[in-house]
Amino acid sequence: MGVYSISRERMVREQLIPRGIKSPAVIAAMSKTRRHLFIEEALWSRAYEDFPLMIGFGQTISQPYVVAWMSELLESSPGMSVLEIGTGSGYQAAVLHEMGLKVYSVERIRELHQRTRDRLAAGNYARIRLKLDDGTLGWPECAPFDRVIVTAGGPDVPAPLVEQLADPGIMVIPVGLDKRSQKMVVVRKINGKITREAKGSVAFVDLVGACGW
Ligand code: SAH
Q1: Which of 36, 53, 151, 166 has its CA 20 to 30 A from that of 42?
Q2: Is residue 183 part of a domain?
Q3: How far is CA 61 from CA 58, 67, 137, 182, 195, in A?
């Protein structure tokens, strides 16, 4: 097992399956993606533990279960395009790439964007497209996206992201006026109609931008 206190296999068996993660594609991607490569080496021993971890600049890499849950809520199929807002460590983007999606990811903090760009290139994830920008405005040049995933919490669903969602399309985003707690919301666009469904409570870092905090 090496330097990790918990193996990937045990993470899947003890943190994901018992909490209801069922998608074979999500389980395969979480089993394969080397989460430790997306954090500082000093934290490697804790890479597969049941917690979020600090990645610098006040930001975090989500708990493995939350990454798996959001990936499952997207109801994606291989070949679809997905826009991620909040590249952070790049781990969520890597998991979506392993699931066969065409990944576009936007980060607003320059240092995180640059560090993750280098890490993804070194880790054979060069096909993930990255942009340094305010992701609440989306990525209009590459829209529409079959799926949108926002990995930071804002006061409401940013209108540009709804516009850039394909029809049919699904967006997963933590939303709430309380900065310490949000509801995971699934936004669906079908035949021009937008619906929202609130799932469980979560705690994400702030979505900062023109259509965020
Ligand atoms: N998906 C990431 C989670 C990182 S935490 C991972 O797997 O590691 C959320 C990230 O969202 C932070 O890096 C933060 O800087 C970024 N963020 C916050 N507001 C943003 C915005 N408007 N546009 C792009 N990124 C944003």
Answers
A1: 151
A2: yes
A3: 11, 9, 22, 17, 28
